Amino acid sequence: MKKPGFYTELSYILGILILAFGTALVTLADFGLSMVVAPAYLIHLKLSQYWSFITFGVAEYLFQALLLIILSIILKRFKISYLFSFVTAVLYGLALDGCIFLTRGIPAEAFWVRIVLFVVGTVLCTIGVSLFFHTYISPEAYEVFVKDFAQAKGLDIGKTKIAYDFSSCALSIIMSFCFFGLFKFEGINVGTIVMVCVNGALIGFFNKKLDKYFEFKDALPLRKYFER
């Protein structure tokens, strides 16, 4: 039986929107964020005390821009695809702020409601990442940093990803202590640990399901521009 077609460009758009909505729900649940996005969230919490325009979304693409600059310095070269990656970060940041605005009216005081928000948000985040794996358009800087650094240094991508995640967690803890006081955790909580344990498995699960039920193909002849 022939599988229905699914355009990779649509996968990119849906990936951004679903990932942003999932992150907004996890943020609202307040059980802790993914260690990958926690540094940007902490930057938002601190700088928004002085400049209200530093939203979570703005902090996201500013932090990702810094990551791309650091990557370029380490590798001593700059790729055009890094610009597309920054565009993705900006689009995601705008979508994230929009989703946070739309979800802020949800009553999240009850403990069970927070659990539901966290579970649904975590699942949506993994679906969003899975959709990103089915498009040629440059992903966010987090994935680009791990992939290009590992390839340039001849390292295993899986191990590099683990090292990056733990480094990001350590950075978040240090930032939390520096910004808000010693032994005061912001952005990292029990939910962070849960996401570390389940994210990889869920992403793999949804990847297989997407490949099983859809045939991904390009709608536009643009793939070559994103491989530079």
Tag the structure with descriptive keywords.
228 residues; 3% strand; 2 strands; mainly alpha; 8 helices; 70% helix
List low-pLDDT spans.
none
Q: Strands of the biggest beta sheet: in what spatial order? A: 1-2
Distance between the termini: 36 Å
Element-by-element helix/strand order: EHHHHHHHHE
Radius of gyration, in angstroms, nearest whole number: 18 Å
The number of helical segments is: 8
Shape: globular
Q: What is the makeup of the main sheet? A: 2 strands, parallel
Strand content: under 5%
Structural class: mainly alpha
Give the fraction of residues assigned to helices. 55-70%
Compute the average pLDDT.
Answer: 89
What's the structural domain tally? 1
Beta-strand segment tally: 2
Note down, in words, how this protein is organized:
This protein is mostly helical. The protein has one domain. Helix content is 70%, strand content 3%. The chain has eight helices and two strands; from the N terminus they run βααααααααβ. A two-stranded parallel ribbon has the order 1-2. Helix 2 (38-47) runs parallel beside helix 7 and helix 3 packs parallel to helix 6. The longest helix is centred in the middle third of the chain and has 24 residues, at 80-103. The radius of gyration is 18 Å and the shape is globular. The mean pLDDT is 89.
